[in-house]
Amino acid sequence: MPLLDLLRPVSDEELRVLSERNPGWQFERLADGRLIVSPTGGESGRIRAAVLGQLYRWNEARGLGVVFDASTGFKLPDGSVLAPDAAFLLGERWQALSQEAREGFPPLAPDAVFEVRSRSQGLEELRQKAAWYLANGVRLVVLLDPYLHRVEVFRPGGVEGHQGPERVPLDPELPGFVLETRGLFLP
Prior knowledge:
tt1808, chain A, 5 helices, 29% strand, globular, Nuclease_put_TT1808, Uma2, Restrct_endonuc-II-like
């Protein structure tokens, strides 16, 4: 996960413009002002799309909230702006935001986030990112590692590791949602 240590922290608007001007790259800002820059490769992009599809279908059937893709940056309580590969936010929390807040980087932590490891990221880097999410109020962080065929589920109370699972239930944070991993991890 390449980190850029700039001369000064970029503003929310500058971060948005950087993302618009550099398609194919994801820019995130840490609380200390450093930028995380990461491209998406084909394999991790395929898995991200599949996970997003599962999350979207689950939410469509239940109508509990709003689902976001990797292009959405959330301004977390510590001032960082992170863009998970997929995210879920309860509907009442989304509705409580002003229209202006919805148009920018939503100023809150999602209820659940999903991150897919790409070739350019180490597993420890993603675990650190999971810790940042939890420290900012995210209730469920799911890391998928297609290289090790592993899913790690982080909650404020601890972490569960699943090696080569076919299904990973994500209750109670996502009621009735079961992440189907068959087809996500290729041999």
